[in-house]
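Hi Y.,

Following your request, here is the sequence exactly as I used it, all 234 residues.
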Amino acid sequence: MSEILGEFLGTMVLIMFGVGVVASITLNKALAKGTSWLMVAFGWGFAVMFGIYTAGFFAAPGHLNPAVTISFALGGLISWSIVPGYIVAQIAGAFCGAAITTCHFYPHFKETTVEEGNSVGIYATGPAIPNKPFNLISEIVATFAFILCLLTLGEFTEGLKPLIVALLVTAIGCSFGSTTGYAINPARDFGPRLAYALLPIPNKGTANWSYAWIPFVGPTIGATIAVVLINIIG
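Below is the corresponding structure, written out as tokens. Let me know if you'd prefer a different format.
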């Protein structure tokens, strides 16, 4: 149960900071509005770092990501018995993190229309160019690169390893992130997307559910390919 709690709280922290940085640069009258993609990349990188540290405090492995959990189980790195609990905790944590950040920015949502940026993109990912086959490929490639590098770290909750993961996520954002917003994590996308759909957010637009399968399927495929490759050559 401690590990489940760690995955829940770690993912909640990840989303609080991650959604928070996008809200900061998007919503009207926020002091950071209009700042650069680099802020997004570093913001999400550090969000992952603090999420991993939070999870590690509760002796959780710091997956914070169903794609990591599923691919590690497929690769024989963890037991399948813990997978359902981890995934539920990750998605619930993501939803709660998005809800907390919504409360924080509530006055700014009231000041921002859909046309001005009050969209599901604050919470979840979407493509720069809508092309589902290539959007799927983008998520596969980004997650493959992420997991391939992540697997070289071993237990990544230890010492300064969460900082290395933060830099890795930042690098993914700078290199592969600008096509689809680099979900690389089904919980990071689905939990906040659900929060945007269900919470009474002023002036909100649609949750774009027709796209939501891509940030779930793509990261899972990319992560699985990385784990299988490492198992073959390792």
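Residues 119 and 139 are 21 Å apart (CA to CA).

Thanks again,
Q.
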